[in-house]
């Protein structure tokens, strides 16, 4: 038997076995899956600090101690199928971590310090209670797999996570996603799975190559839909019966008819300055300037509503994204 690997799963332990202390210098991998261990004792972190692989899945762990950071050689930690509600900030000190599995717990958030895990490659968060993910995850530059299935409160995923340099697999099935990012890292990303997000009505062209044929028939309404208006904005349009949905990052939405303050950007200031002048009406302008800039000069410093029946000027600043309905 390999003295460095200890398989003590399915043994009906009611606490962390003290016998581990007798071999703390010899063991690198510990499997304690499917027991009844309620907590990770401090002595485990202090005396077993040579561990590289720990599997505590399927126990009854409620709290993870701050001293978890003492396991400085840890490369893989599996805490799935427990009762954990909060992760300590010290989790960010496990700088050798390659795989972190936290599925089937009661987590509602991740500490921002998790972004310090620069070597992390696999992060599993399925079946928790996340409503959002920290954007600090983008600092995990080597992250390749991010799995978030069955987080029914999750309404959005930070766009930057789809742009990470090593990301190959993202899965957020059976969540409550309202919007998907319009830009992704197409050089490394191989799989995007967002099945059964019934609040999605569109998917961006950038993600079209990842979509399966069944995505052609999105169901826009579900009886058990959980609205989370704090993560997106609904803007009504008089020309059509539907609302327009925008991410919460679009913090300023202005009605030109009511907006009397000065513009907030240099580009908009220039547009306002030129709008209505003789140079805008010059015949040579369209051929001399790029189409986008020419249209902005003709239409003024505000955007045009994308609804054809409407086409009113409504935004001071906005993002334009192509989608397929």
TrEMBL record:
Q: List the InterPro entries.
A: Leu-rich_rpt, Leu-rich_rpt_typical-subtyp, LRR_dom_sf, LRR_domain-containing
* One CC-aspect GO term: cytoplasm
Q: Which UniProt keywords apply?
A: Leucine-rich repeat, Repeat
* Keyword hit for Methyltransferase: no
**Does Repeat appear among the keywords?**
yes
The family database entries (PANTHER family) matched by this protein are listed as: PTHR48051, RAS SUPPRESSOR PROTEIN 1
Name of the protein described by the UniProt record: Uncharacterized protein
What organism is listed for this UniProt entry? Aedes aegypti (Yellowfever mosquito)
Q: Which gene encodes it?
A: 5569490
